[in-house]
Amino acid sequence: MARFRTRLTLIGSAAALAAGAVVPAQFAGAQPAAAVDRQWVALGDSYTAGVIPAAGDVFEIPRDGCERTDQSYPQVIDRDLGSLVELTNVSCGAATIANVTDEAQEPLGRHLPPFSEDPDYPFPPVPPQSAAVGPNTDIITVGVGGNTLGFGEFVTKCAELGQGSGGVGTPCKDELAAGIPARLNKVREQYDRMLAVLHERAPHAKILTVGYPTVVPKDTSKCRYNDLSQFGSVTQGDLDWLRQDVLEPLNRTIEKSTGTQKTASFVNLYDSSQDHSVCDSGKWVEGFITPPDQLSLVHPNARGHRNAADHVEDAMLNALG
Questions:
Q1: For the chain, what is the radius of gyration of the CA atoms?
Q2: What digits encode the pLDDT tens for the residues 214-255?
Q3: pTM surpassing 0.85?
Q4: Structural contact between residues 274 and 213, judged by C-beta atoms closer than 8 angstroms
Q5: What does DSSP assign to residue 35?
Q6: How many Å apart are CA 192 and CA 201, to the nearest integer?
Q7: Which CATH class is domain 35-320?
Q8: With contact defined as beta carbons under 8 Å apart, do 22 and 40 qualify?
Q9: 302-320 and 2-11 helices, crossing angle to 10°
Q10: The pLDDT of residue 115
């Protein structure tokens, strides 16, 4: 929060800055805050929306099935920045890049048979997330790409293929590795198009693309085979493959795509979360379940969202300043 207070002080009151006023430090706290209300739209998938109980409570009533939670990073930043921004959060669990760009989405809520059934399912379709962006939008944050690549699908398949292996071998890599380059190309093509659409809809907005945190540790010997609070029956070799050949290339693809847009910047969450993977004691991402029995399916918890909030908020303040 120190960075936030320093930069908010620099933003200050527009009138005071125009007048060149110098306020003594002992009286600074008495000055009324300027009501800036920059328009911010948060787009993204479940790593933005929150979704799981470990990332807070779903706050929208009636539910639309997107499962935005009150400890997800857009909501944390909104509380931090107060009147500096006006948030429109249309992130949605299970969203793909296409759902951000131009395809309506039918939200799942927490209806994930055979794991869980949602009494409110099915939910009406929600519009493409880019519909919330317009000429008056000042800043856009977007965290998406994992579902287009199929990361969650891979993790689930790897657990299935690893059953009975004793944690040995790379059955998932052996079956799925050949398809990864084409999937990464698809992510790159769709991400480029999404950024172009967002820029067209909000030509003056700063776009912040948000990468994915560390999910699998560098040292996969930390991960216990058949532990559902971690990766269940995914083998150690497949975990190394998921980290090196799936998640890390996904982040690089997003960063490279971001670099093609002059109005866009990439927010790196991976480096800051290196020691907080699913298999670390101070985890910021939950495993398949959060003990004793909450379904989490490898998603960030409130601590992970707080870390994301710190980095995204810092980037937002730089952009708005």
A1: 20
A2: 999 999 999 999 999 999 999 999 999 999 999 999 999 999
A3: yes
A4: no
A5: -
A6: 15
A7: alpha beta
A8: no
A9: 20
A10: 83
